[in-house]
Amino acid sequence: MKRLVLGGLLTACVLVLPSCLGDGGSNTRTLSNIPGVVRFDLKSMKTLVDAAEALPLGLYSPDVEARGFDNGDCVLISFSVDFNSAENVNAQTTGYLNIALSSILPVDQFPCDAHMRDTSVLLDNKTEQAISYAIDSYLGYRLVNDKLFLFSDIDQLTDQKNNWILYYDPKLEAEKDGQGKRIYSLFLRAQIRVEGTKPNNPYAVPNAFNAGYFFEQVNAKELSAGSKIAYIKINHINKITRTEQDTTFTWTSSELIPINVVEDN
């Protein structure tokens, strides 16, 4: 399977691996709330966490499985890793780094489907929520094992639960901007699933979307067109005004997400 790479914020905090693992002393890095996907590794027979910051190496702690996480789960993982520890001397061979796990939190998963919704009406007048920013300016996005992690800003009650809907036009045609960039559109929407009770607070909500097939299609189209890079934008409703007489709303778009086109092996 081709490993697609998103540019931009993805490269903000990469876990750089020293060239000489296990040379003695301490060379420790600590990272917090890193998006990852749990994977059972057939080579090592261990439950690993793949994180964009550490790929192609997985992350191993027996506490991941002990805390009930299983293959395919999406998580936010906080950990420290000592590159020079004896247990990591053969990391390039074993395919994983041993880590000291600080915390691991589940991330909700949702589909990414090729089913357009009517953008001129709300999904539901009472439950659809405005999304301030589809991509939080600090936390951003990641693509890990075909899961697109988005940190989206939304003004909601602190204990509110939402259904998040990510979709695209099945025709999947690129539009060109004034600079000739080829841009593909995704649409992100949110609906209240469980009403909250506490005061409103702005949140950067993490979600993971099964967007692998979407990116594979984009990659194939751009490869056929001879492109080296394409762009994704995420359209979303950023304001909803409800009155007794009427409901109005406005659409906007995220920053462009670069996607590096990968050639077939």
Q: Any descriptors?
A:
single chain, 265 residues, mainly beta, OB fold (Dihydrolipoamide Acetyltransferase, E2P), Immunoglobulin-like, 2 domains, 12-stranded mixed sheet, 6-stranded mixed sheet, 3 helices, 47% strand, globular
At CATH level 3, the topology of the largest domain is Immunoglobulin-like
Task: List the domain count as a whole number.
Answer: 2
The CATH class of the largest domain turns out to be: Mainly Beta
Number of strands: 18
CATH architecture of the largest domain: Sandwich
Gyration radius, in Å: 20 Å
Residue ranges: pLDDT <50 for 5 or more in a row?
10-14
Query: What does the main sheet amount to?
Result: 12 strands, mixed
Percent helix among the residues?
Answer: under 10%
What letter string, H or E per element, gives the SSE order?
EEEEHEHEEEEEEEEEEHEEE
Question: How many helices?
Answer: 3
The best one-word shape is globular
Report the portion of residues in β strands: over 45%
Q: What structural class do you assign from the helix and strand content?
A: mainly beta
Q: Give the N-to-C terminal Cα separation.
A: 9 Å
- Give the integer mean of the pLDDT values: 90
